[in-house]
Specification:
Elements (H helix, E strand, L loop, with lengths): L46 H15 L7 H13 L9 H14 L5 H18 L5 H17 L5 H11 L11 H5 L4 H5 L7 H15 L10 H16 L8 H20 L10 H13 L8 E2 L14 E2 L1 H4 L17 H4 L11 H12 L38 H31 L2 H4 L3 H4 L13 H7 L3 H15 L3 H4 L15 H22 L3 H17 L9 H9 L8 H14 L7 H7 L15 H4 L17 H5 L20 H11 L20 H17 L1 H4 L3 H12 L4 H21 L14 H12 L3 H5 L5 H11 L4 H6 L2 H14 L5 H14 L3 H4 L2 H14 L5 H24 L2 H6 L2 H14 L4 H17 L2 H4 L2 H19 L4 H15 L10 H16 L3 H11 L11 H16 L7 H4 L2 H18 L5 H9 L1 H15 L19 H16 L6 H54 L1
Antiparallel strand pairs: 1-2
Helix pairs in contact: 1-2, 2-4, 3-4, 3-5, 4-6, 5-6, 6-9, 9-10, 9-11, 10-11, 11-16, 12-16, 16-20, 19-20, 20-23, 22-23, 22-24, 23-25, 25-30, 29-30, 30-33, 32-33, 32-34, 33-36, 36-39, 38-39, 39-41, 39-42, 41-42, 41-44, 42-45, 44-45, 44-47, 45-47, 45-48, 47-48, 47-49, 48-50, 49-50, 49-51, ...
């Protein structure tokens, strides 16, 4: 190409002066000053800048009618092409030069057109100029015109320039896209499989890829043209190599198509077309994942289909005949493609260091199909030299090529690797673009289960274990990680705790087998990999697997093997590897915590020197501690450290009394955070001897500690002092990230203590952390650096985290803290609510919402009032996060008001300011019209406040309108299209308000609206939990007068009856599980209405009970009274919160019957009363008979059992006497 003509004059510098002038060697010589690649000292104007400026001046002076224009332009273009530009010029200058040059070069001068296109490509490619729209339009017009006018031989250079111009500018070229990508567009013609010129086809595909490329912040390309490009790329990938085409050019063309496909998928939301489009893409990518892989000769399917079982590729006859007969490879090369894969590589000095390391890494990799995991206890035995070598990765003893042939083969091998890498990048884009549930159907094509005879399938795991290039292996691991990420719901069905049936293999067992195969393969890759970057990704991939696999449904042992394999890598020289190992440990102690298997592993002593696994890197791993020897600056050697220095085979250890409290993982993380490292890795340089671990390692170790405390608190609670010291040290450091994680660790530990003391968790007193220790712990923490973190206004995130730490203090311990400490906590939190930063304000308001529930603070009227005023101010904040947390805290505060009203009584109600209550009521009403995040707790607060108000307050004029507005806000929320959680809370709030006997339900105008809203919801809402709460609310009023007139009472009854009849009608299976709870609550509500009914209600009740509706009511009430259906989590207790035995339920119906019989009625109401009485008597009779039969059967069964036991005892005694 002409672009290289200016680069063929090496040695002397510009102007004939040597770039490296001779300098005499002497002590007095001037110190060495480094030069830039151009040969000029820093600070001086570069030759390239001078040349560019001169060329721009000359170009602006040229005119189209000049006689020597052609020669001058040719010379000028050569000068521009001769420089390598390593400094950024003004974009306007470059754009001006290119626009002017395009005006001077006519399309008839094809040689000049090529030179100009090369200049465009050279300048834009090296200077990374962002063009303005006018320049873009001019250059696209010019190149498009050149494609129409100039000869075909020029089109490669023209397209190359066009590809540089449109790079990331596809949406801005919309007016030219029809000419380029239309049915007769140049790019579609040149990228077609019928195009014989491979270079032209490659550049056309590159140009299309650059059009599809999306720069962050810019809109994506129009879907119409993106689809056109997508089809062109896919057609290229599906086409086979023409017979007369060079393999190298074919690979370069495929790389361009892969890059284009990746740009299409990554350029915005993408939806695959119907039919087999996704399967076709996956099939093409799977074939190209193995492009050029030696020994892979198969007939690939054209389409992959979603299936639970793998679609095995059919091997050719030649390949089928090649089955490995032993672990040792054949001495003679007999694998097809060995010429490209087995050439002996030679290191040629330091310049080949990376290639040498790659070669060494290749020699270490394992074979997933032929190499079993090493047996337990045999790690010290010598393995054959080829134990972990795939047969097609062994080096041949002699070179099989000449130098030229070897160079060509090397280039081809590199390009094959790039194709495989590009295919994996595309597959990664597909995984990210396609919905997870759609992709699950294709898992079996990329992730196998255990091989069951025959040839092993070609999958991602094959690449991870066998590919020559660490970069390709890295890409395969990234794809596998993306597939595993978020797959918990899919993998949750895996199970192999029981043996599968012989007639068929359940899908759950197949999925469990795939998980085991993933463990096996990734463990082999872990032991064989030597490239630090790829090794890091192997460990990250294992972390994704551990985080998503359901180990509680799998046979134990998988995590034990993984734990054993990973432990040596904690001391790996590479920082990233160490960080990824800690990430994996974090996943292990997080997944389904607490797992019994992990609990045992945590208590195992540290046998890190004898892991029982073959680890090729063992010789270079232990940079931190060798043979258990620690430096004098460290803590004394523990029992577990001494045991790690022995080299005896690893024996499964059952922790005894002595080791039960030694958590080696916790000790390791504490050491990594606090202790200085003894050595430094090569990559970290040599520095002071007291240097701590790098920040990423320390941060990850702190995260593991937090996960450990959260998931396995009973094991970590014995390290109360150590964790407090670690957190205090972290909070005292300068690094804000370390401080942040230290505060988070404290919060997790505090939350663990709170969980222990919750009554519902039933933790024995002897197993809890003693209160005295908790008080001492928080006293030391609050007198230490946590105060500085709370006052660190330069780092709001740290302040917010410190507020969260304050909120995790055990209430019982807070009550025993010194008064000044309690006052400090409250004062700091109240002050932080006035900080402008929303993170700090949110955390402080949340902490106050927790403190207001503390028994030692909730009866303090002054604290409650101060907290209420703070929350009211936060409810008006512009940040939604602050308002949402303020509404939550207001809900907690009003919960406290209800508790105090029931425990303290009227005294507390009278002490609390009426004006403050009014403000709270108005603020909660306004918040009920806010976003759903705010609204859900605002309605909760409204229900509590309406319950708390006294008669004297409701009659005051200042309260009447706010009271009406509050009830109407609840009614509006119940009827709205808000989220179900909001409506559920609103129904509960109305029921809570109905508990206030002072509320004028019989006379208020808003009362009718409240009952109507609840009646509508109980019959029509799709969400059964909302129906349950609305039914419970309708059953709250304790007196008949609260239900209003007869018409309203009858409507409530009819609504409940209709809801009971339709309690099984739902199209959502998830709702069906709440149907029993709904029927339970509706039955309670109907009986409650009968219990408060009066004589005027008898006609309406009798009409309902005598109809077909009454038959359904009878059936459901009988089931309720017999307790045939469990109430479920939503209705375990009756409306008044009392748990009733079936006999007690029947007794309550008898009481209702007695009350109704005592009602005085006349006329038609008498007939209605008789009907209701008959209904209740019939109900009681049926239930009594059932109860008696049940008791009789139980007594007979118990009698028979007693007789059998007595007879068995006599027989035993007789036998003993004999």
């Amino acid at each position: 190409m002409a672009a290289q003509s200016g680069l063929s004059h090496p040695a002397p510098g510009r102007g004939g002066v040597s770039v490296f002038p001779p300098v005499p060697l002497s002590a007095e010589a001037a110190p060495f000053t480094p030069m830039e690649p151009s040969g000029w000292r820093p600070g001086s104007q570069s030759e390239a800048e001078k040349l560019f400026s001169n060329c721009a001046i000359k170009l602006r002076a040229m005119r189209v009618d000049s006689v020597q224009l052609k020669e001058e332009l040719n010379l000028l273009f050569d000068q521009l092409l001769s420089e390598n530009y390593n400094r950024t010029f003004e974009p306007a200058d470059v754009c001006s030069l290119l626009k002017h040059a395009s005006c001077l070069v006519p399309l008839t001068q094809e040689h000049l057109v090529i030179k100009l296109c090369q200049v465009v490509h050279h300048l834009l490619n090296q200077l990374k100029v962002i063009m303005d729209e006018h320049t873009l339009d001019v250059l696209v017009n010019y190149t498009a015109g050149a494609l129409k006018v100039c000869s075909t031989w020029t089109h490669t250079d023209v397209l190359l320039a066009l590809s540089t111009v449109v790079y990331g500018n596809g949406p801005q070229c919309h007016q030219h896209l029809s000419d380029l990508l239309g049915e007769e567009g140049f790019l579609l013609q040149y990228s077609s499989p019928s195009q014989s010129n491979m270079e032209l086809r490659r550049v056309a595909l590159t140009c299309m890829a650059n059009i599809c490329l999306r720069i962050p912040g810019q809109p994506p390309l129009d879907d119409q043209y993106r689809s056109v490009c997508f089809r062109a790329f896919l057609k290229t990938l599906q086409s086979t190599k023409p017979p007369d085409t060079d393999e190298l050019y074919y690979c370069m063309m495929i790389q361009a198509a892969l890059k284009g496909l990746q740009c299409c998928l990554s350029g915005g939301k993408w939806k695959f077309g119907g039919g087999e489009e996704l399967g076709s893409v996956l099939a093409a990518l799977k074939r190209l994942m193995f492009q050029g892989a030696p020994g892979v000769i198969v007939e690939w399917p054209a389409v992959l289909y979603p299936a639970p079982l793998p679609q095995y590729e059919s091997l050719s006859a030649a390949k089928a005949a090649e089955s490995p007969k032993s672990l040792e490879p054949p001495k003679d090369a007999a694998v097809p493609g060995k010429a490209s894969g087995n050439k002996k590589r030679k290191s040629k000095g330091k310049g080949k260091k990376m290639k040498t390391e790659e070669s060494r890494g290749d020699e270490r990799e394992g074979d997933a199909e032929t190499v079993p995991a090493p047996p337990k206890g045999r790690a010290e035995e010598k393995q054959p030299a080829s134990f972990l070598y795939p047969s097609w990765k062994l080096n041949s003893s002699d070179s099989e090529f000449s130098d030229l042939e070897g160079n060509a083969q090397s280039k081809l091998r590199v390009n094959h690797g790039r194709v495989r890498q590009g295919a994996l990048h595309c597959l990664l884009a597909v995984v990210k673009a396609v919905e997870k549930r759609t992709l699950y159907g294709y898992w079996s094509s990329f992730i196998p289960d255990s091989p069951i005879g025959g040839p092993p399938p070609l999958t991602l795991l094959t690449i991870i274990l066998k590919d020559l290039s660490p970069k390709v292996r890295l890409c395969a691991l990234q794809v596998l990680s993306a597939m595993l990420d978020g797959s918990r719901q899919f993998l949750a069905v895996a199970e192999d705790t029981a043996s599968p049936r012989t007639s068929y293999t359940p899908f759950s067992f197949t999925l469990a087998t795939a998980i085991r195969e993933l463990h096996r393969t990734l463990s082999l890759a872990l032991l064989a990999e030597t490239s630090p970057q790829t090794l890091t990704q192997v460990i990250k991939c294992l972390a994704y697997l551990v985080a998503n696999a359901p180990y509680h449904r799998l046979r134990p042992g998988l995590l034990t093997l993984l734990w054993k394999h990973i432990r040596p890598y904690v001391r790996h020289r590479d920082v990233n590897v160490r960080v990824s190992v800690l990430t994996l440990y974090g996943a292990l102690v997080t997944t389904q915590a607490p797992l019994p298997e992990v609990q045992l592993l945590l208590q195992q002593p540290d046998h890190s020197s004898s892991t029982g696994a073959f680890t090729p890197q063992d010789s270079g791993l232990s940079w931190r501690q060798r043979d258990g020897v620690s430096s004098p600056s460290r803590t004394p050697v523990t029992h577990s450290q001494r045991s790690s220095s022995t080299h005896s085979p690893h024996i499964p250890h059952t922790p005894g009394e002595e080791d039960s409290r030694r958590l080696w993982l916790l000790q390791l993380c504490v050491t990594l955070v606090t202790q200085p490292r003894e050595d430094q890795s090569d990559s970290e340089g040599v520095g002071g001897g007291a240097a701590l671990e790098p920040p990423p390692v320390r941060l990850e170790a702190l995260q593991v500690l937090s996960h450990l405390v959260r998931g396995y608190f009973p094991l970590t609670q014995h390290y109360l002092c150590e964790i407090g010291q670690v957190s205090a040290r972290c909070l005292g450091e300068m690094d804000t990230s370390i401080q942040l994680h230290g505060a988070k660790l404290l919060e997790e530990f505090g939350s663990g203590i709170i969980q222990q003391y919750r009554a519902e968790n039933n933790v024995p007193e002897s197993s809890r952390v003693p209160i005295s220790q908790v008080v001492q712990f928080w006293s030391e923490v609050l007198s230490g650096p946590l105060n500085r973190a709370l006052q660190n206004e330069q780092h709001p995130t740290l302040q917010a985290s410190a507020c969260d730490t304050l909120s995790s203090i055990l209430p019982q311990a807070f009550a025993q803290l010194p008064d000044k400490t309690q006052l400090m906590c409250i004062t700091v939190l109240l002050g932080l609510t006035y900080i402008e930063n929303y993170l700090v304000k949110t955390a402080a308001v949340r902490a106050l919402g927790i403190y207001v529930l503390f028994p030692c603070l909730r009866e303090d009227v002054m604290f409650v009032a101060d907290t209420a005023n703070t929350i009211l101010a936060a409810l008006d904040d512009r940040s939604t996060n602050v308002r949402a947390k303020a509404a939550w805290s207001l809900g907690n505060l009003t919960d406290t008001l209800i508790v105090n009203m029931e425990s303290v009584g009227v005294d507390f109600q009278e002490e609390l300011s009426d004006m403050l209550l009014l403000k709270m009521l108005q603020a909660a009403t306004r918040a009920a019209a806010d976003k759903d995040r705010v609204k859900s707790n605002a309605v909760r607060a409204l229900g509590n406040l309406l319950h708390f108000l006294r008669q004297s307050q409701m009659t005051r004029p200042a309260f009447q309108q706010p009271l009406e507005d509050a009830v109407r806000a609840l009614v509006k929320t119940v009827q709205s299209e808000a989220t179900m959680k909001v409506r559920w809370n609103a129904c509960y709030a109305l029921g809570n308000a109905f508990r206030n006997p002072a509320l004028p339900l019989d006379s208020a105008a808003w009362s009718h609206e409240a009952f109507s809203a609840l009646c509508h919801v109980v019959t029509s809402c799709k969400n059964f939990k909302v129906r349950i709460k609305s039914a419970a609310a309708l059953a709250v009023p304790a007196h008949r007068g609260c239900y209003g007139d007869t018409e309203r009472f009858t409507r409530v009854w009819r609504s409940l009856a209709t809801a009971l009849e339709n309690s099984e009608d739902t199209n959502d299976f998830l709702e069906y599980r709440y149907s029993a709870s709904l029927r339970h609550t509706l039955s309670q509500a109907l009986l409650h209405l009968l219990s408060v009914s009066q004589s005027q209600d008898m006609l309406g009740l009798s009409a309902s009970l005598a109809s077909e509706e009454g038959t359904g009511i009878r059936e459901h009430l009988i089931k309720y009274l017999r307790a045939e259906e469990g109430g479920g989590e939503e209705a375990e207790k009756d409306i008044r919160g009392e748990s009733l035995h079936p006999r007690e339920r029947i007794g309550s119906v008898e009481q209702i019957l007695i009350r109704i019989k005592g009602l005085k009625v006349e006329g038609e109401e008498e007939r209605g009363k008789e009907m209701v009485i008959h209904f209740l008597e019939d109900l009681i009779k049926i239930c009594e008979e059932t109860w008696k039969n049940t008791q009789t059967n139980r007594e007979v069964t118990e009698s028979k059992a007693s007789s059998l036991l007595l007879r068995f005892g006599l027989d035993q005694a007789a036998g003993g006497f004999a």
